[in-house]
Amino acid sequence: MLLVGEGDFSFSASLARAFGSATNMIATSLDSRGFLLRNYKKAIANLHELRVRGCIVLHGIDATEIANHSYLGAFKFDRIIYNFPHAGFCSDEPGESQKRRHQLLISLFLKNAKEMIEERGEIHVTHKSNAFFRAWNLEGLAAAVGLRLIREVPFNFTDYPGYRTKYGFGGDKNFNCNPSKTYKFGLFPIMSP
């Protein structure tokens, strides 16, 4: 299992506790370890928990380039998870332009993740499912890179004890993730001749 875009690593730590072990997990963040320690008060505890449970933790990992990463690119995964992808805020940027920037992030992530999943593997993207966020059209972005929607399910962060939604620009505030859904994408079945 590969987790990308982790904030304070509370989601991956929650999974590790639920599984009892994290030897089957690689958890990554775009941010450096130093940034996490300066900005998220629970990051140290979450990183420690993951390492104790056998998780590989990597920093400075760009979700839009994972297939070409010297280490990660060598693996195939059953699950690749990206919770609440967001390309950042630009208050002076028109809404349509912001939407396109977010769509590009998700599209490039999906294109990379597609190269890294097993034949029956899944790519999970958890995403807010109201107003502005619905317009990002995750299903269309996935179809454009050759993925199919397997199913979408409501996301409830309380199902993951200890998980805290964090803004990617730092600060230790949680954002309201309701309502949200997890969209599960996979490869199209290979048709036999």
UniProtKB/TrEMBL annotation:
Pfam families: BMT5-like (PF10354). GO terms for molecular function: rRNA (uridine-N3-)-methyltransferase activity. Coiled coil: none annotated. Residues 2-166 form the 25S rRNA (uridine-N(3))-methyltransferase BMT5-like domain. One of its GO terms (cellular component) is cytoplasm. One of its GO terms (biological process) is rRNA base methylation. This is 25S rRNA (uridine-N(3))-methyltransferase BMT5-like domain-containing protein. It comes from Gossypium harknessii.
